Amino acid sequence: MFIRTCVTVASLVSLICAGCVARVSATGRAQGQGAGGGPTTTVTPPPITPGAPVQIAGTPVVRVGVNFEDLGGQGDRDYNDAVMCFEGRFNVDGTNVVSTEVQRVVASTSSRSHCRHRVRVEIHHADGTRDAPLTFDSRSGQQVPLELRVGSRLEVFTQTYEGVCSTTEMNMHEADNCRVLLDVCNTSGE
C-alpha cells in the first residue's frame, strides 16, 4: 500500500492513501482503516526542527523582480529606480524570497532613475551563516551571481549616493519603497 508521509500544520489533516482514508492528529500519528477493513496504519513523520529549511519538491521555476522606488511614498511609484530580476526555484511569500534547492542564479540589474544607488544583496543561509554581501551600482547593468542553498533567503537593500533622491537606506520589506513581485521586473518608464 502506498502512503504519503505528511507533516501537519493544522491540528487535523486528511490523508488519502491507496484504498484508505487516514486522519492525522496534532500528535503526528495517522490512524485509519485500510482497504477492505484491514488493519490500522500508523505514519509518524520526522520531527520538525525549529528554523530548519523547508524543502519543497517540484517547485516551479519562477521569475522574481525586486523593484525599488527611490523617493519612498513620495515618488512616481513606478518602482523602476533600482531593479534586480532573476529566475530560479524559490518560495516567494510576500517580500520573503527563499531558495528551495541548491542553485546558481544570475540576477540582472537595471535602473530608470536620475539618481545613482548602491545596491547590497545579502544571502542568509538556513544554518545561520551568510555570504559576503554583493554590492553594485544600480545603473551598472551588472549581472550578479547568487550561490544559493536550500533555505537560503535573499535580503536586498538600496541607498542613493548621487542625486536628489532620499539617502536613507531602503530594504525590500518596506512597502512604500519596494515591490517584490512574481514575473514583474519594472525595467521601463522614467
Describe this structure in words.
The protein folds into two domains: 1-48, no CATH class; 61-182, Immunoglobulin-like (Sandwich). With 190 residues, the protein is mostly beta strands. The chain contains no helices and 13 strands. β1 (13-17) and β2 (20-24) form a beta hairpin. Residues 1-34 and 40-56 have low confidence and may be disordered. The chain is globular. The strands form three sheets. Strands 4, 5, 6, 7, 10 and 13 form a six-stranded antiparallel sheet that branches. A four-stranded antiparallel sheet has the order 9-8-11-12, with no helix packed on it. The chain has a three-stranded antiparallel sheet with strand order 1-2-3, with no helix packed on it.
